[in-house]
Amino acid sequence: MIVDKPSRGPREGDVITIKSYKHDGSLHRTWRDTMVLKTSENAIIGLNDHTLVTEDNGRRWVTREPAIVYFHKKYWFNIIAMIRDNGVSYYCNLASPYSLDKEALKYIDYDLDVKVFPDGEKHLLDADEYAAHSKKWHYPKEVDQILKAHVKILVDWINEGKGPFSKGYVDVWYSRYQYLMQQRLNDRR
């Protein structure tokens, strides 16, 4: 009898694709070549650096700065810590928990975003887009309630310096990325 081995998830140093979708199932955005820095049972931390991004309309662009990405299977948000000359800015997407298959890490983007500036100032973005899409695609009441609850969790994380907002988080994971990139260079020699 032949038994299939369970497929393993990505490991540290692997490169994956990230795909975001809209509630109706349409592809929203794709990031190529995100390096995995850490995986656990419920979370993946990765890094984008000059990563090719393709929009749903076919427009392509490349990220300008390194960004640490955080995805979780239980939280309805993901967090992008953008490392800029003037400090770290965060872009937080209210989104479904991620799923992972052989093709990509995937999630549904629910329009609402929270941006955190280097000085700690916070802005809720795209509430009008959320309202329009909620009406257009008939977001279930349960999804609306979950997203509102997770906005509160996210703001608590920001205010308490928890998870990706903690002191040292960006330094630790960016250093890990630099180490892994150096290992790759050494392996090619």
Automatic annotation (TrEMBL):
SUPFAM superfamilies per record: FomD-like
Binding site for Mg(2+) 1: 93, 109, 113
Cofactor(s) needed for function: Mg(2+)
Coiled-coil features, chain-numbered ranges: none
Residues of the active site: 29 (proton donor)
A matching Pfam family: DUF402
NCBIfam families for the chain: PRK13662.1
Protein name per its UniProtKB record: Nucleoside triphosphate/diphosphate phosphatase
Source organism per UniProt: Fructobacillus apis
Organism lineage: Bacteria, Bacillati, Bacillota, Bacilli, Lactobacillales
